[in-house]
Amino acid sequence: MRPFDYHRATSPAEATRLADQKGSAFIAGGTNLLDLMKLEVMAPDRLVDVSRVDADGMGGIEPQPDGGLRIGASVTNSALAADPLVRRQYPLLSRALLAGATAQLRNKATTGGNLLQRTRCYYFYDRDTPCNKRSPGSGCAAQKGVNRNHAIFGTSPACIATHPSDMAVALRALDARVELLSPRGKRRIVPLEGFHRLPGDSPHLETVLAPGELILAVHLPPPIGPRQIYRKVRDRASYAFALVSVAVVLRMEDGRISEAACAFGGVGTVPWRDPALEIFLKGEAASEALFDEAGRLLLRDARGQGGNDFKIPLLKRTLRAVLAEAMAERASNPAGGEA
Ligand SMILES: Cc1cc2nc3c(=O)[nH]c(=O)nc-3n(C[C@H](O)[C@H](O)[C@H](O)COP(=O)(O)OP(=O)(O)OC[C@H]3O[C@@H](n4cnc5c(N)ncnc54)[C@H](O)[C@@H]3O)c2cc1C
Ligand code: SF4
């Protein structure tokens, strides 16, 4: 690991001021960044620690007047998953968080850091191989290499790596927005939909964050429905990233879907969502034909890379199982306000 300066910020304004110079990086739980620094895949000169910043709501979970929630960027994954309001109103989020990593890691990992965690592509971590994300223009070893855990949606000739976060998949289905603070003191709110960039020909640019810009919080609107399921398929029951994951939020009225949001993990270069699928689901009742057509529609543009071809039928089967479970009569949660 290369030497670096370390500063602990006490407020968001101080953090952005300290980070407003080339070679600076924020550090929160450090569960991803420190691994990357040890491998010298990332080598910041200066770390600005924001893990203990509580000011401006960075350390809290606050109910909002519209019935939604503001989640501070320094809130740990454990605290967020265990929060009573999150468990009651956004069980999808709680389950996605608990499906990630291990208890020790979740105790350190934060909301902001989780959104910005880097891919788990093996070649990204191996400095002896070409990787456009780590070293722009060097090539992509995964295209003709081992690509079992890679993406089937949103890929480009430059990069086929997945976004690894479980939390971000749930947030995508819940229409989250990300609140940012610039070193000039300017605040802006970006929908999560536009926060992560597709790789295109510049996979090293992963988000729309400007240099020195800090994630202050994540905002959630009230959920569109009480039926919320997160299912993660992985190689081991814990300590493993998703091969595929499906997040579904539904509202049913008179046996038919009145609202639907579906997001997918382990399959996209960004947390994936498909508006055409959601439009198709609205007004439908549960049937084998519906589940078949939903899978066909979702996977219409999926592209396997060889080693990950199995994700196409696996995602189809997982979506079918999750939709069937979410639409079943017993899934109705009176506390969620469904008619
Ligand atoms: C063994 C292992 C297994 C794992 N399994 C899973 C899993 O199954 N599912 C899953 O989703 N995740 C998994 N993870 C990843 C883990 O969830 C992330 O490492 C963690 O969420 C990152 O949060 P952090 O606070 O530690 O971020 P850090 O490592 O501190 O930072 C990550 C990045 O975010 C930036 N950053 C942090 N906070 C801010 C902020 N407020 N504003 C702007 N930039 C910021 C940092 O500069 C850095 O670039 C696993 C990790 C490990 C080590
Ligand atoms: S898939 Fe992306 S992260 Fe992996 S080697 Fe290719 S460019 Fe690098």
UniProtKB/TrEMBL annotation:
Entries under InterPro entries matching the protein: CO_DH_flav_C, CO_DH_flav_C_dom_sf, Diverse_Substr_Oxidored, FAD-bd_PCMH, FAD-bd_PCMH-like_sf, FAD-bd_PCMH_sub1, FAD-bd_PCMH_sub2, Mopterin_DH_FAD-bd
Domain FAD-binding PCMH-type: 1-225
Keyword Metal-binding carried by entry: no
Keywords, ordered alphabetically: FAD, Flavoprotein
Name of protein: FAD binding domain-containing protein
Species assigned in the record: Plastorhodobacter daqingensis
